[in-house]
Amino acid sequence: YILQLTENDQSFLGYCEQTAYGGGWLVFQYRYDGSVDFYRNWTEYRNGFGSVDGEFWLGLEHLHRMTSTRKHELLVELKDFEGNYKCARYDEFEIDSEVKLYALMKLGSYKGSADDSLTRHKGMNFTTKDRDNDTWNGGNCAQYYHGGWWYWSNRKSNLNGMYRNSYDEKNMVWDHFKDINKGLAYSRMMIRET
């Protein structure tokens, strides 16, 4: 779909999920085969990368502009390499502005089957390999965990980590899915206006 937030905004291409959980979801992160490297810089995470017909990140600026003007919910879908599916759903989701480092400003109540590995990240700034906005004094979490995310001095999840079927803290992980540091095979994050 071609999306345009207001008549003054530039349009952009978005992938809308119209069947899962009642449809109407805009996908902003999608990973399923490791074909796109998510170890990216601030500008790439701000503007987005990949392609909506493959793996992609829609862009923090799009997320901010959508979630700051209207209330949205968040749905996270996950699968491991054995094909087990779980989801996490939050009844509110808002990303702050670039000036506020695209912080995970609002994250509502959790429900789902994946257990909650995101609430601990609420209020945290987005960190990339070239922009250290986390609270870890010993280094840059995005460099350490190999992907941009809303880190504090650690993480409970990082769906932008390395795509590997192994145990490694740098992997694409959701700590409560199964085992801490066990890489996931599939991740899809999407929002819907409420």
Automatic annotation (TrEMBL):
<dbReference type="GO" id="GO:0005615">
    <property type="term" value="C:extracellular space"/>
</dbReference>
<dbReference type="InterPro" id="IPR002181">
    <property type="entry name" value="Fibrinogen_a/b/g_C_dom"/>
</dbReference>
<dbReference type="InterPro" id="IPR050373">
    <property type="entry name" value="Fibrinogen_C-term_domain"/>
</dbReference>
<feature type="domain" description="Fibrinogen C-terminal">
    <location>
        <begin position="1"/>
        <end position="194"/>
    </location>
</feature>
<protein>
    <submittedName>
        <fullName>Fibrinogen C-terminal domain-containing protein</fullName>
    </submittedName>
</protein>
<dbReference type="InterPro" id="IPR036056">
    <property type="entry name" value="Fibrinogen-like_C"/>
</dbReference>
<dbReference type="InterPro" id="IPR014716">
    <property type="entry name" value="Fibrinogen_a/b/g_C_1"/>
</dbReference>
<dbReference type="Pfam" id="PF00147">
    <property type="entry name" value="Fibrinogen_C"/>
</dbReference>
